[in-house]
Write a structure and sequence with these properties.
Elements: H1 2-18, H2 28-31, E1 32-48, E2 55-60, E3 68-73, H3 77-82, E4 95-103, E5 118-128, E6 133-135, H4 154-163, H5 165-171
Parallel strand pairs: 3-5
Antiparallel strand pairs: 1-2, 1-4, 2-3, 4-5, 5-6
Length: 179
């Protein structure tokens, strides 16, 4: 049974990586809720290293509640690698804590990767069990500012410092009034 589930998950990952992306990019407000921050801990189930966003699947288990699977949207695979992430450090079973913002779709629809209901969130900071922190967020998407002070890939550092703020407004029509 376990082998069958692993084969199904592997096939789903392979198919997901082979399909064309429906949209080139998006603004934060079209998919995520800046008023619904999340901070969750769990084990990595899988990582999709695909463009335009890597996706990190995490199973969260809390006492007295059923396990819940989450998919955290992250930056591009290249940005994650340049920022210090590696395939080795994000293997299935790795304990992580992730901070970000909940997706607008609160229904947690079924995922072909995990075969269960999966809640969506925009990942910003991933913390490994040894305390190392990685900025995993996308930049230039009009996402809320964060308090992450750790290392970033060079392009992330420029974008989060405001270099892309002027161009965000031109392609993010649904800006929040508070920003």
């Amino acid at each position: 049974m376990r082998t069958r589930n692993l084969l199904a998950a592997g096939l789903a990952l392979a198919l997901a990586g082979a399909t064309p992306q429906a949209a080139a990019h998006h603004c934060f407000d079209t998919m995520f809720d800046a008023d619904a921050p999340v901070a969750l801990s769990g084990k990595v189930l899988a990582v999709q290293w695909i463009n335009p966003h890597a996706k990190i699947y995490v199973r969260v288990e809390e006492a007295g509640r059923p396990a819940q699977d989450w998919v955290f949207w992250a930056g591009t695979p290249n940005t994650l690698l340049r920022g210090g992430a590696s395939r080795e450090m994000l293997r299935p079973g790795t304990e992580v804590s992730v901070q970000g913002w909940r997706g607008l779709d609160k229904a947690c629809p079924e995922s072909p990767v995990t075969m269960t209901g999966v809640c969506t969130a925009d990942g910003r900071v991933l913390t490994l069990a040894d305390g190392r922190k990685l900025f995993i967020g996308s930049t230039g998407t009009n996402a809320p500012p964060d308090a992450y002070e750790g290392p970033r890939a060079p392009a992330q550092a420029a974008s989060t410092a405001g270099a892309g703020a002027e161009t965000q407004a031109s392609w993010c029509p649904q800006q929040r009034a508070a920003r």
